[in-house]
Write a sequence for this structure.
């Protein structure tokens, strides 16, 4: 099992390096002069050339790329914001916990609410609970997140005045961003769980467990659900990517001061260090959580364990 973990960690390092290189190359080819962005439109050509030298932009591309990768991965230095002049890492220290909190709470709701809804719908197939879940899933999967967030602001803030429309002045400010970011995930998770349970409920081992006289609760939670969760856990990685990507739009709609809003502010002002750092942080967050999901999937699925156990046994046998 440790070989599988080591392999996944090595892939994580490769992914982070690839993301850093890709975002650097993309911004390299974007039209515009970062030195002029820093100095403003009134700067002379001599001032711009001097600023380019200070920023290291006069060096060859491969040297700039190597310096950037060294600063980020060896010194955790994401550079200074062109617009604000402050270190990007300082903004991350303030904003990252908020984005992490928003993403993890949304993901927790996806699991805590979505899985029981899917199990209940599968057990009561073709009942009003099942039909209601299918309708709810179709609606929330189809509705764009930004539109749902805007409708929440109109209803709960403008019309009813129950919740604040923006900021993080209190715990009430988290309710609408979390709901807007998790409703589609809850619907997808419930639908996936329903399909997985319906496939497992007809399996031979479930019929055998019922024939032994076990209670329905034991059959569901001890025999059926652990096997049904294997494809659900596999789908959580895709849902996580949607949750992380959704935070960018959700934070902008609710003026939630997290990494997503920081990224969009950097894009609108062409603040390259902010863009590079924010994309890398979001990619790392998504990759780490996906790694944890994969490890949990390997723990649930004995076939993955057997694959690496058999591989190690073959190597030992070959050496003999």
């Amino acid at each position: 099992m440790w070989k599988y973990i080591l392999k996944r960690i090595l892939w994580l390092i490769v992914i982070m390096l690839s993301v850093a290189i890709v975002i650097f190359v993309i911004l390299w080819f974007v039209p515009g002069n970062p030195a002029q962005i820093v100095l403003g439109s009134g700067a002379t050509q001599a001032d711009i050339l001097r600023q380019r030298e200070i920023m290291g932009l006069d060096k060859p591309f491969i040297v700039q790329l190597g310096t950037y990768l060294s600063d980020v991965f060896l010194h955790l230095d994401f550079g200074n914001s062109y617009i604000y002049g402050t270190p990007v890492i300082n903004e991350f220290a303030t904003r990252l916990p908020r984005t992490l909190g928003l993403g993890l709470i949304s993901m927790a709701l996806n699991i805590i609410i979505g899985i029981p809804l899917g199990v209940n719908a599968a057990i009561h197939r073709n009942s009003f609970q099942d039909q209601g879940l299918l309708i709810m899933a179709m609606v929330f999967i189809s509705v764009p997140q930004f539109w749902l967030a805007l409708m929440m602001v109109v209803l709960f803030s403008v019309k009813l005045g129950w919740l604040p429309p923006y900021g993080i002045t209190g715990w009430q400010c988290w309710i609408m961003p979390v709901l807007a970011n998790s409703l589609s995930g809850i619907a997808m998770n419930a639908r996936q769980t329903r399909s997985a349970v319906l496939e497992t409920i007809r399996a031979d081992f479930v019929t055998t467990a019922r024939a032994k006289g076990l209670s329905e609760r034991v059959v569901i939670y001890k025999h059926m659900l652990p096997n049904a969760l294997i494809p659900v856990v596999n789908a959580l990685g895709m849902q996580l990517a949607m949750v992380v990507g959704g935070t960018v739009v959700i934070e902008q709609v609710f003026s939630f001061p997290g990494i997503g809003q920081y990224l969009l502010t950097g894009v609108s002002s062409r603040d390259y260090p902010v863009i590079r750092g924010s994309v890398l942080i979001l990619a790392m967050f998504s990759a780490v959580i996906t790694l944890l999901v994969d490890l949990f999937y390997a723990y649930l699925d004995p076939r993955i364990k057997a694959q690496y156990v058999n591989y190690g046994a073959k190597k030992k046998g070959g050496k003999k």
The longest helix spans residues 216-253. The mean pLDDT is 80. The chain has 13 helices and no strands.
